[in-house]
Design goal:
By secondary structure, the protein is an alpha+beta fold. It is built from eight helices and four strands; from the N terminus they run ααβααβααβαβα. The longest helix has 25 residues, at 121-145.
């Protein structure tokens, strides 16, 4: 089926399908491993996605071992435990609320950028979570670009995960993403999406 938007976008139809139209949240994966080289290639691509002041608060914790997955599972909602324990790889996405300390090197065109956040922890936390969420979205699209599938999850005890993995308080959990190749029965039928006219207001 040819979509009318396919002819109007710079990205070809195959790439549009891979990144968006055929993208599903996956619950069950095959046993094929996801290598560090693949995750590095994904990051090397998506790290170029824009954020405010070029902030880069996102941190990746790659949970591969059964032990690390068990530590995580005790903080998950019941529906997320089994699929996480079975996934080839789970990425714990966290944010560094001291991201502003790197701004002098990451955004040198504005030497005072770091000062905007110094002593303003609440402001840093809001900015870290917002820009970290942007980076997380880029990461998920990058997983699709690598020919893999993602199962992002927010159903977990954030305070429990922070105590388990970040006891020094340096990071704060944002999102979990199971990663791998989808099993034949690993996806559900796509739900309806809002159309352009349902979200658009023209003034």
């Amino acid at each position: 089926m040819t979509h009318t938007t396919t002819r109007r976008l710079a990205l070809d139809g195959t790439a549009q399908d891979l990144l968006f139209r055929q993208a599903h949240t996956v619950d069950r994966f095959t046993g094929e491993p996801v290598t560090d080289e693949t995750v590095r290639a994904v990051h090397d691509l998506v790290r170029n996605g824009p954020t405010a002041f070029n902030q880069q608060p996102l941190r990746l914790w790659l949970l591969r071992s059964p032990e690390s997955r068990e530590r995580l599972a005790r903080h998950l909602t019941r529906g997320n435990r089994e699929k996480t324990l079975r996934a080839p790889l789970t990425a714990l996405l966290a944010v560094d609320t001291d991201f502003h300390l790197r701004l002098p090197e990451q955004f040198p065109q504005f030497p005072g950028a770091s000062d905007l956040f110094t002593g303003e922890r609440g402001k840093r936390e809001r900015s870290a979570r917002f820009n970290g969420a942007l980076q997380a979205a880029y990461f998920i699209i990058g997983i699709r670009a690598a020919g893999l599938a993602a199962g992002p999850m927010s159903g977990f005890d954030e305070d429990g995960v922070d105590r388990e993995f970040f006891p020094d308080g340096a990071l704060s959990a944002l999102l979990l993403v199971n990663i791998g190749r989808p099993a034949p029965d690993g996806t559900r039928a796509r739900g309806p999406r809002l159309g352009y006219d349902e979200i658009r207001t023209t003034l």
